[in-house]
């Protein structure tokens, strides 16, 4: 059955999205066992113990936010952009235009699994691993390339997404624009999210390190939810703006 048929497409996306959300929850739990995360959380606990503070107060949350707001916004933006296009928009993109025959060397039934999910998971993992060895840009400049990732949203909108119903013209018809765009999007998702989560506890006072880590987790989840909620907006724009 063709992936372009509405029932098939809806069922596929309905299955993909919960799977990816579960994966992101696993990613969040993985942050809590990474060495850098444990180090700064322990450092914050020791500093708060020395100050006889038992739990973060509202003032501490406010002070932590003032110290690491750029990193927190970066965490939000990374996951917002990623979830706005992956998996729904990417899985709904094909190598052919409306009414055109399938023109990819990859079989139709394997296309989303290879070009979207395998591609994304592999490159995001490489990006996360790279962040353990290379930390660039620094905390003060990270927000700029992260904000530039917002361009991935119109980029993938201008690929062959939702070809049967779209009105918006397609600018990037060749499938390699789509595949290489996903490579870059996935790598930067893993890399920049790891950097932002690393930097947040570093740039605040030691006593606020744990609070900054908790705030990072909150902004991560918020970015995921806002990104998922933005998918219908993308589809509406593609289908109504010509």
CATH topology of the largest domain: Growth Hormone, Chain: A
Output the helix-strand order: HHHHHHHHH
Q: In one word, what is the shape?
A: elongated
Largest sheet features:
none
Overall CATH class of the largest domain:
Mainly Alpha
Give the mean pLDDT. Answer: 84
Percent of residues in helices comes to 55-70%
Transmembrane segments: 72-90, 141-158, 178-200, 212-238
Organism: Ancylostoma ceylanicum
Keywords: Membrane, Transmembrane, Transmembrane helix, Transport
Membrane topology: Multi-pass membrane protein
What this model shows, in words?
With 242 residues, this protein is mainly alpha-helical. It folds into 2 domains: 30 residues; 185 residues, Growth Hormone, Chain: A (Up-down Bundle), CATH 1.20.1250. Helix content is 69%, strand content 0%. It is built from 9 helices and no strands. Helix 2 runs parallel beside helix 8 and helix 3 runs antiparallel to helix 8. The N terminus is likely disordered.
What are the defining features of this structure?
242 residues, mainly alpha, Growth Hormone, Chain: A, 2 domains, elongated
SSE topology:
Elements: H1 6-31, H2 35-50, H3 58-85, H4 88-91, H5 111-130, H6 143-148, H7 152-157, H8 175-202, H9 209-240
Helix pairs in contact: 1-9, 2-8, 2-9, 3-8, 3-9, 5-8, 8-9
